[in-house]
Amino acid sequence: MFFAFEGVDGAGKTTQIAQFCDWLRSLGHDVVECRDPGSTALGEQVRRLLLDHSETAIGARSEMFLYMTARAQMVDEVITPALTTGKVVVSDRFLLSNVVYQGYAGGIDPAAIWQVGLTATRGVLPDLSLVLDVSDEIAAQRMSRPLDRIEQRGAEFRAALRRGYLAEAARQPERIVVIDAGRSIDAVQSDLRQAAQRVLDACSTGGRA
Ligand code: ADP
Ligand code: MG
Description:
about 210 residues, alpha/beta, Rossmann fold, binds adenosine-5'-diphosphate, binds magnesium ion
């Protein structure tokens, strides 16, 4: 079983993932946490390249492929081994982030990113992506640290991110769930667990969500 958490920075992913993994462990699951990009030696190096305030120019397509590189490595080293031994994987972001940031907000055709992504991941996709949806105002309030290279792109860019997430959720309602994350941590966590429970139940009865 594979869950991915999605949403803009400041939406509450890190906060919610910690509680969500505690809950999964309390149910007896063996949980593997990872973050995309990252969680492998190569992936963490690529992450630094992508998010640091460096002078290196990175064009939109190059950026997309760098994310794919990190993700391909993470699938091989972390996710596939975990899934084949019956563990539950919880990833902080996955391919949907790429589709939304470099696609809907970045100008690359979202369908092309899905296609490249399926090659990069060998078809390994989250059973459920949980999109933490917040307004720009709330996300900004929650972000106390300086913005990284991607986050500095302005209000127009962030509005496009939100539209992208909602569009993909509308297109794939079985695999992408939008949670109103502008509420209390507990209220959001409760909805996340409810959505995940449905997928866990479907899996344990042999069906597919
Ligand atoms: P992300 O990982 O999506 O960037 P974080 O989990 O790091 O978001 O949350 C950003 C900040 O907002 C943190 O300081 C966190 O404590 C706070 N925060 C997270 N969720 C909520 C919430 N539901 N209500 C109020 N503050 C929150
Ligand atoms: Mg985070």
